[in-house]
Design goal:
GO molecular function: cytokine binding
Number of helices: 2
Order of helices and strands: HEEEEEEEEEEEEEEEEEEHEEEE
Protein name: Tsukushi
Number of strands: 22
Keywords: Developmental protein, Glycoprotein, Leucine-rich repeat, Repeat, Secreted, Signal
Helix content: under 10%
Oligomer: single chain
Structural class: mainly beta
Subcellular location: Secreted
Distance between the termini: 64 Å
Radius of gyration: 26 Å
GO cellular component, one term: plasma membrane
């Protein structure tokens, strides 16, 4: 290959990341990934999973970016366990699948660059106040624990400019304490919140959080009425699938969600609603999932309340799309296009025709 054509290829290989191994603490594995021209920059991923509780505190290389301490039967984690050379620049920490029942309030106080934290599949029953204030976290997984009551303020992080993705699913949460108004504390920047499969009987007060995604799947919500989503005007994706009990949708229950684009109500065979007015105010909604709900046939007025709606899922593999018929041309004075639903069984790829709901 001529040299002018070979040079760009060599530069690409030099800049791309390359993975190698390096000497590591006995039982652990250290994988080095190099970046930059001539491998001038490197980061190390240290895997010390499945070795047992004796592994901590474990010394790690100075350039460690991610540490995996999962499945070690750890019963406690405190500041001394996560201290030493290499920990100060740690960006990712995995403590999942251990036996943790509590956390020290200062456990992560020295992890000033920590962005991703996984404490899922433990036995945590409570979270200390200000547990994460020292770290610029963007991703926290606390799913599959035994949390019962959680304060939103506990997730105020060091970097308030960074969006936080928070997973609290599969706990025992019956109450989510709201962020206190006028307390002088910065509002947590939670943008994605997964509260699926907890014990919430009402939509929690999440006002003023910059939420874009919210899942309440599998909770025993009794009703969704006016004011349930107050202060969540920026929410774009809401999932209320597989709710337990006999959930009821009241008229105007979603009216605060002017920016909502996707609404999932699937898997609710006992869901009761009060007509098309339930969806009043959802002027930006584009996708609606009603599969497994029995909410068919849909009222003819539904499309009038959902002017931006593009598709509805109404059953297994059955999807309906908005169809606008202009009618005769030229259009008669005072007439308007006719809007209908065109439904297709995707398993058979056969059109059922408009208005078959």
């Amino acid at each position: 290959m001529p040299w002018p054509l070979l040079l760009p290829l060599l530069l690409l290989l030099a800049v791309s990341g390359a993975q190698t191994t390096r000497p590591c603490f006995p039982g652990c594995q250290c994988e080095v990934e190099t970046f930059g021209l001539f491998d001038s920059f490197s980061l190390t991923r240290v895997d010390c999973s499945g070795l047992g509780p004796h592994i901590v505190p474990v010394p790690i290389p100075l350039d460690t970016a991610h540490l995996d301490l999962s499945s070690n039967r750890l019963e406690t984690v405190n500041e001394s366990v996560l201290a030493g050379p290499g920990y100060t620049t740690l960006a990712g920490l995995d403590l999942s699948h251990n036996l943790l029942t509590s956390l020290s309030p200062t456990a992560f106080s020295r992890l000033r660059y920590l962005e991703s934290l996984d404490i899922s599949h433990n036995g945590l029953a409570a979270l200390p106040a200000e547990s994460f204030t020292s770290s610029p976290l963007s991703d926290v997984n606390l799913s599959h624990n035994r949390l019962r009551e959680v304060s939103v303020t506990a997730f105020t992080t060091h970097s308030q400019a960074r969006a936080l993705h928070l997973d609290l699913s599969h706990n025992l949460i019956h109450r989510l304490a709201p962020h206190p108004v006028g307390a002088g504390l910065p509002t947590p920047t939670i943008q994605s919140l997964n509260l699926a499969w907890n014990r919430l009987r009402a939509v929690p007060d999440l006002r003023d959080l910059p939420l874009r995604y919210l899942s309440l799947d599998g909770n025993p919500l009794a009703a969704v009425g006016p004011g349930a989503f107050q202060g969540l005007a920026g929410l774009t994706h809401l999932s209320l699938g597989s709710l337990q009990g006999l959930p009821q949708l009241a008229p105007h229950g979603f009216r605060e969600l002017q920016s909502l684009q996707v609404l999932d109500l699937s898997g609710n065979p006992k869901l009761k609603w009060a007509g098309a007015e339930v969806f009043s105010g959802l002027g930006s909604l584009q996708e609606l999932d009603l599969s497994g709900t029995g909410l068919v046939p849909l009222p003819e007025m539904l499309l009038l309340h959902l002017p931006a709606l593009q598709s509805i899922s109404v059953g297994q593999a059955v999807r309906c799309r908005r169809l606008v018929r202009e009618g005769t041309y030229p259009r008669q004075p005072g007439s308007s296009p006719k809007v209908a639903l065109h439904c297709v069984d995707t398993r058979e790829s056969a059109a059922k025709g408009p208005d078959t709901l």
